Amino acid sequence: EKKPINVAVTGAAGAIGYALLMRIASGDMLGPNQPVNLQLIETEPGMKPLSGVTMELADCAFPLLRSVQSTTDLEAGFGDAGLAILVGARPRSKGMERGDLLTANASIFAAQGAALNAAAARDVSVLVVGNPANTNALVASANAPDLSPAQFMAMTRLDQSRAAAAVAAKTGAHVRDVERVVIWGNHSATQYPDLTHATVRGQPALKAIGDDAWVKKTFIPDVQKRGAAIIDARGASSAASAASAAVDHMRDLVVGAGDAWLSMGIPSDGSYGVEEGLWYSVPVTCAGKGVYQRVGGLPKPDDFSASMMDATRKELLSERDGVRHLLPK
Ligand code: NAX
């Protein structure tokens, strides 16, 4: 039998955690032959609801679930973790300014970066889901000097899937037939969902859609604001779809995804005028075993794309300015 993989999840008692843990434990994320140990991290007030979730995990009698540990201690929770999914974050409360939220969350991710640095497996892959995800990934990595920045990723997979689903609906194709949709930049309303390289059934998506006004006036803003539309309809933010995107991201990273283009927020290498040190979403391919590679050699973006990519870059810069005091010199 395969050796179990240790998967750490923060915010495990939250809405995303509830959906995510079931998918990991059932084998959806790492496959039907891969046992897992769950290492669940919560706040003190989160421990009681978490005990209910772990009762349910036991009651599911998942054949692949080898052990479940629940803790408030970061180093214990991240100990020897091969995969870490950082979901727990402070939600925006009434009257809270965006800057306050940024700082409150950044201090959480500074502590988690330091604990990962101290305790996780040296080849750990860290996926940041909690918002503001890109800047939280930056802060966590900055506090983990012994791990490579490339090991920290911010999740934009949900945005990618939302964009692909919108294109499928528009063209009457199945979502599986929509490829190479790209999310650039921040996981926020400034993100740029880009169809320049996308294909539908192997044909250029922009040609299949044939409606530039729809792309610019409907598709892009709808994808950017999809999270708000779900809150408006459901009275709660997307949870199952966010969990599903995290499962997809980690599965592709660990198992590999051939030549598929997948978007993730990773440390910039300076391309597209994005300064190094920002976590900016770009297309990558995944070879498996935690290895990903940026898609290179793309033609220079046209003026519209360049201005969209620049706007989201500027937002990430200003977020970094807001957390500078938490970045070690
Ligand atoms: P919930 O409020 O339901 O759950 C969050 C959980 O995290 C709570 O149980 C809380 O006790 C715990 N928590 C808070 N601080 C913690 C800490 N320091 N250590 C460990 N646990 C901690 O939120 P949920 O709906 O699950 O959303 C979680 C995060 O995901 C939010 O920041 C949200 O904005 C973000 N999202 C990110 C998405 C993405 O695509 N990157 C999409 C969905 C979601 O909006």
UniProtKB/TrEMBL annotation:
InterPro entries listed in its UniProt record: L-lactate/malate_DH, Lactate/malate_DH_C, Lactate/malate_DH_N, Lactate_DH/Glyco_Ohase_4_C, Malate_DH_AS, Malate_DH_type2, NAD(P)-bd_dom_sf
EC category name: oxidoreductase
Stretches assigned to the Lactate/malate dehydrogenase N-terminal domain: 6-144
Residue positions of the active site: 187 (proton acceptor)
Any one GO biological process: malate metabolic process
EC number: 1.1.1.37
Domain Lactate/malate dehydrogenase C-terminal, residue spans: 156-321
Keyword Oxidoreductase recorded: yes
PROSITE patterns: MDH (PS00068)
Chain sites annotated for binding NAD(+): 11-17, 105, 129-131
Molecular function (Gene Ontology), one example: L-malate dehydrogenase (NAD+) activity
Binding sites annotated in the UniProt record for substrate: 92, 98, 131, 162
Family: Belongs to the LDH/MDH superfamily. MDH type 2 family.
Protein name: Malate dehydrogenase
Organism of origin: Porphyra umbilicalis
